[in-house]
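Tokens as discussed.
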């Protein structure tokens, strides 16, 4: 796959996608081996998305989504889009750079008020559309130009609109190997943090080698949001509650360091 196509998918109407070739940023989710591993993780619910990240993200959104026009950046399989419609959202546009993700999202969706488009955050262009709420789940740490992404989000939000997003926590992205230090018997001793202030590209392994993430500090995430014209309304570093029963390996370890950072803001005060 050498190009990016902008898909306008209305699965409730046609279930098909048409596109225009463009230059693309890295799209690891279309790697066949990566996609198989990711799909298995989501299918078995053995990741932290359902247990931790999604509930935390929902806590930062308006109490009611009824009547809202929503944009989902990095929509994946469209889970949030369908959930938002069940909660009364007027329309949802989901964008993702991965055609594999969008094909699966379209296959799972039968709703003319949900539209999927193949497009990257780096080249976000929605033809003048304006939204009440923009949401992004675990996508912005793949984007190199964070300030540019925030400017594009601000451009598609109405004044007073809200933006909420999650990223891998900077104490996780600081070092590329993203592994606990363990003793001779394999017991986790501590989570290492080094090069925290050195922001930029990190090449790591997740299902496959060569996954590129962009490390930035908590301060940079917050300052960028403020500089883009948002008033900070939420900051969350969720960890699993005691007694949670979930099929997530080593769930207790995630109480020793936060795996996610979530921020929310309102545009223009």
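Sequence:
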């Amino acid at each position: 796959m050498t190009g990016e196509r902008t898909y306008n998918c209305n699965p409730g109407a046609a279930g098909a996608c048409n596109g225009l070739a463009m230059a693309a940023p890295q799209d690891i989710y279309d790697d066949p081996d990566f996609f198989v591993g990711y799909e298995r993780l989501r299918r078995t619910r053995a990741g932290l998305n359902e247990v931790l990240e999604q509930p935390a993200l929902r806590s930062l959104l308006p109490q009611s989504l009824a009547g809202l026009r929503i944009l989902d950046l990095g929509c994946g399989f469209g889970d949030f889009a369908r959930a938002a419609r069940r909660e009364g959202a007027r329309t949802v546009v989901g964008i993702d750079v991965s055609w594999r993700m969008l094909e699966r999202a379209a296959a799972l969706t039968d709703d003319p008020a949900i539209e999927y488009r193949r497009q990257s955050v780096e080249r976000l262009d929605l033809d003048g559309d304006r939204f009440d709420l923009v949401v992004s789940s675990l996508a912005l740490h793949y984007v190199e130009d964070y300030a540019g992404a925030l400017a594009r989000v601000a451009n598609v939000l109405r004044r007073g609109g809200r933006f909420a997003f999650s990223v891998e926590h900077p104490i996780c992205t600081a070092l590329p190997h993203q592994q606990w230090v363990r003793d001779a018997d394999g017991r986790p001793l501590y989570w290492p943090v080094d090069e925290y202030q050195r922001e930029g590209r990190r090449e790591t392994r997740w299902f496959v080698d060569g996954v590129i993430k962009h490390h930035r500090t908590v301060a940079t995430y917050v300052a960028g949001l403020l500089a883009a014209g948002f008033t900070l309304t939420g900051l969350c570093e969720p960890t699993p509650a005691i007694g949670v029963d979930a099929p997530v390996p080593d769930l207790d370890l995630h109480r020793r360091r936060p795996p996610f950072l979530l921020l929310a803001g309102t545009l223009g005060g």
